[in-house]
Amino acid sequence: MAVFKLIVTGSFNAGKTEFIKQISEIEPITTDKPISEKELKDVKALTTVAMDFGRLTIDEDLILHIYATPGQERFSFIYPILIKNALALIILADSTNENSIKDITNYYTAFYGLKRLPTVIALTKTDKPNKLSDEKINTILQNIPSDVPILKINATNKEDVKKTVLFALEQLAKEQAI
Amino acid sequence: MEKKVLFVLNDELLSDIFRVIFEKIGYSSKTVQTPKEAIDEINKSTYSIVVIGNIKGPIVKSKLADIIYDKAFGFKPHIVILKEPGDIVYNADHITFVRKPAFHTELLNAISAIDENKKITDVLHEVKESSEAIEEFVKNKEYKTYDIGEFFKQLKGNKKFEIISNNQKVVGFLMNNEFYILSSDFDDPYYLLSLGKVEIAIEKFELSEFLSLKLNKDVFKETLKDYILKALDRIHNVDKILSFFPATDRIISIRAPKYVLQQCKIANANFDIDWLESLSGSITIEDIMNKYKDDIVKLKTMAAMYILNMIEFTEKRRVSNSKFDVQIKKSFLEKIMDKIRGL
Q1: Which phi and psi (to 5°) does residue B319 adopt?
Q2: Smallest CA–CA distance from B325 into chain A, residue
Q3: Is the dihedral of CA B178, B182, B187, B191 positive or negative?
Q4: Is the dihedral of CA A81, A84, A87, A88 positive or negative?
Q5: Is the pTM for the entire model greater than 0.95?
Q6: Which residues of chain A are within 8 Å of residue B88 when distances are taken between CB atoms?
Q7: How many independent structural domains does chain A possess?
């Protein structure tokens, strides 16, 4: 039985749990608890404490595990554990939140330092009127390599989520084809 | 059915206290520290009660309680969760929430505060340790050769040790992350970290033995972290500092959260944790030496982080033309992509 992983990361409230729900064959096992930071309490009642977990059975010998990592920086110690057998990294960010966009570079750097994974950046909540401008986002993300795809998605839309995952895996397939 | 209780606890003091309590009421007990060990155990044996406290790993207590209850083979255990602020509380017939006891740490803190001069824990009476007692403190005299830095790196839990270097001996123990030296042939307790290769006998230190130990006021005691930081601060030779690292060409990766790293400072050194985090996974000690030739404080801080397991060193990636560090059979990748397309 071969088990591979897909890692979904991103800052607080970027939509990681919803993202997993779209492609997991099981109701994601979440490890949520009430958040402790006072300033975040109004934003979201629950935040991922450790990680959410979803599963996709490919066939009887092949399984894909989908992990959403904690948004808060203090849980970055989990990353080295997660990367084993990981196939790709999806970094989600809330396009209405400048800090969420800024965090993308931190997540990219943290994972890249551990393992070079095909990566896709997916911006969520792009239909909101208070989203950051493309120009602003491009400025914030200027240190991300230009070959890392940046998509605008709805994390509750299955087709968007499928497209995001496939964008990541196609990078791997392309390299194998070379 | 034999009455058995499983403690899922990452707190040896509390675990020992619970064990004594449960033994008094006829239970046999076992302690595990991680969720995985707990689930393995619940699959192997039948337990009447499972007590869940602070655990190693990312899962929250309530979630672990549900998994244990579901996975328990045959008889379903009652689960007692030691609740702390922030823990999820919900009603379920099979779960009882009890406030996590704090009396043991309060007691130790109170005793520690009694001695204002040295701020050490005089656990019981002031009785000078006899040389015989010191000699017998570590019973298992199976010495192994260690690099002293590697010994400290591996020193976890409650342990007794006897260290010998050129016929000089140091006897001590680690209890609740506090480092004690009972007896030493060296005047400076911090000199220990400068010894290089040493012979060490080490064994588990039971709480009951610790509580019955009669320590005099002169016993050296410090948190392990502070001990390592102060001991490194006394070393001024760069080669000595470098000897604590596995190899200077290995890549540094961070294992501890930022707030933990921030607490690891040599004296008043202003070590830039953001700088270290930004370079995690891409720099080696060699790189740091090249960039900061005269900055021994940075090396000392990194040595402390390494010994205290806050950072690790991994081998340099093999030179490769591939863009990604991912290995998967082409057929597997195609199957996964086809499956996702078809969702």
Answers
A1: -65, 125
A2: A116
A3: negative
A4: positive
A5: no
A6: 33-34
A7: 1
Nearest-angstrom CA–CA distance, A136 and A146 = 16
Looking at CA atoms only, how far is residue A84 from chain B in angstroms? 9
Q: Which of B283, B324, B334, B337 to mutate to test the interface with A (most CBs of A within 10 A)?
A: B324
Give chain B's largest Cα–Cα span. Answer: 76
Q: Which range marks the domain in which residue A129 is found?
A: 2-177
* A40: confidence class by pLDDT, cuts 50, 70, 90: very low
Between positions 13 and 72 of A, the ones with CB within 8 A of B are 23, 29, 31, 33-34, 36, 49-51, 56, 58-59, 62, 64, 70
Question: Six-digit token pair at A143?
Answer: 């240190």
* Cβ proximity of B264 and B310 under 8 Å: yes
Helix (H) / strand (E) element for B21: namely helix B12-24
Measured CA to CA, the distance from residue A32 to residue A46 in angstroms comes to: 6
Amino acid type, A108: Y
Angle between helices B35-44 and B61-71 (to 10 degrees): 20
Coil, helix or strand for A63? strand
| Model pLDDT for residues B298-343, shown as the tens digit of each residue | 888 889 999 998 888 876 654 345 678 888 888 999 999 999 999 8
Q: Is the pLDDT of residue B228 over 70?
A: yes
For residues B19 and B55, what is the distance between their CA atoms, to the nearest angstrom? 17
What amino acid is encoded at B197 in this protein?
Answer: K
Sign of CA dihedral A76, A77, A78, A81: positive
Are B23 and B15 in contact by the 8 Å Cβ rule? The answer is: no
- Contact yes or no for B339 and A113 at CB 8 A: no
A58 close to B335: Cβ distance less than 8 angstroms = yes
Task: Classify the complex by whether its ipTM is higher than 0.90, answering yes or no.
Answer: no
Percent of chain B whose pLDDT exceeds 70: 86
CA distances from B335 to A8, A16, A58, A90 (A): 20, 24, 7, 20
pLDDT (0 to 100) of residue B33: 86
Query: For residue B70, what pLDDT band results from cuts at 50, 70 and 90?
Result: confident
Backbone angles phi, psi at B182, to 5 degrees: -80, -40
CATH number at residue A60: 3.40.50.300
Pair A57, A25: CB distance under 8 Å: yes
Q: Which of A120, A64, A178 is nearest to B338 (CA)?
A: A64
Nearest CA-CA distance, residue B48 and chain A, Å: 26
C-alpha A118/C-alpha A141 separation (Å) is 17
Q: Which residues from chain A sit within 8 angstroms of residue B86, using beta carbons?
A: 33-34, 36
Whether B51 contacts B82, CB under 8 Å = yes
* pLDDT tens by residue, A24-37: 887 766 655 444 44
How many whole angstroms separate alpha carbon B170 and alpha carbon B188?
11
B229-281 pLDDT, tens digit per residue, is 999 999 988 888 888 988 767 788 777 767 778 878 776 667 777 777 777 77
**Residue B293 class from Cβ within 10 Å (0-12 exposed, 13-18 middle, 19+ buried)?**
exposed
